[in-house]
Amino acid sequence: xxxxxxxxxxxxxxxxxxxxxxxxxxxxxPWAVVESVPVADGGDGTVxxxxxAGFDRREAVVAGPLGDKVTASYALRGDTxxxxxxxxxxxxHLPRGYFAPLTATTHGTGELLRAAxxxxxxxxxxxxxGSATNDGGAGMLVALGARLLDSDGVPVxxxxxxxxxxxxADLSGLDPRLADTDVVLASDVDNPLLGPKxxxxxxxxxxxxxxxxVAALDAALRHYAxxxxxxxxxxxxxxxxxxxxxxxxxxxxxxxRPGVEVLLDMLGFAEALDRADxxxxxxxxxxxxxxxxxxxxxxxxxxxxxxxxxxxxxxxLTLAPGxxxxxxxxxxxxxxxxxxxxARCIADAGPLLERVAEQLAADFLVRQ
Length: 368
What we know:
Belongs to the glycerate kinase type-1 family. It comes from Actinacidiphila oryziradicis. One of its GO terms (molecular function) is glycerate kinase activity. It is a single chain. This protein is of the alpha/beta class. The protein has 2 domains: about 1-40 and about 270-365, Glycerate kinase, domain 1 (Rossmann fold), CATH 3.40.50.10350; about 45-260, Alpha-Beta Complex (Glycerate kinase, domain 2). It is built from 14 helices and 13 strands. It has helices spanning about 15-30, 45-50, 85-90, 105-120, 140-145, 200-205, 210-230, 240-250, 260-265, 270-275, 295-305, 320-325, 340-345, 350-365; strands at about 1-5, 35, 55-65, 70-75, 80-85, 125, 145-150, 170, 180-185, 255-260, 280-285, 310-315, 330-335. The chain has a 6-stranded mixed sheet, sandwiched between helices. Helix 1 links the parallel strand 1 and strand 2 (about 35). Helix 1 (about 15-30) crosses helix 14 (about 350-365). It is elongated. The chain starts with a strand and ends with a helix.
């Protein structure tokens, strides 16, 4: 039994999901051999998944999205670091109900990258997702040595809105260690930087941007890209995390890969599949988004290629059986079926997940 599930956002980390599923399986089938590989797709929980796989957790005090100091974690093993952008520049660092779409900065993400370089990292996975920012990664580049100046030669202010005043973009001062560092942009989205499918239009409203804010941000990012390199603006992943993907591609020489693919490779998932008879995946909500680069879809695709059955656990399920089957998931178990009250379902997710795992074991495990 291989448990390879993502977090249940707002309820359980991926590690906690694995622990609860294992507890339920062992009650129903104490003879079963159970292994877990907590997974992520580059967004929230990526560092936790890496630490569960044997990486060391490191911490650095960096600028949060509003410029105040926050303590952010990254993961390190040998010369490989896993950076989770949300640790430094995520929505989690904003006061409840407060957004700053025009001024939030990725400066702290750049500081986190620099801390990893200082620790000896020369292979860096930059997982993006859950960001509070829409600055095109400008703050990240500045933290790594770039100079972004207005027409008076003064550094432009923080956030995507300030990029409208950008007159000079000088990347010659970027940390020279980056030239010898392999950076992988790990994202579950492949949006371009600009336009109706770009960073501002698609993700700006999630970060509090009004329609006029979206228009202003898209225009400012277009101006920014004209100075740094317009071709990269159309590259897959350039629009990820408010455009930090663009900065990683054009400034850090990053290569783009779907986040779940990167994480599965790094966490030793292929080796674990060699030992598995049944794979259990899942996340908080199995819905249409799951089919587009989320962790359960990646797990199911890899397991199906090995001829393994895959079942899923989730908080809620909105996918029809046909869609699940097409994704390689044979059956899904939703906590909401046991507890219809959403608030109680979220609060009691752990015990409910154990009950679901017991039922799963009864349905799929045959005592040898």
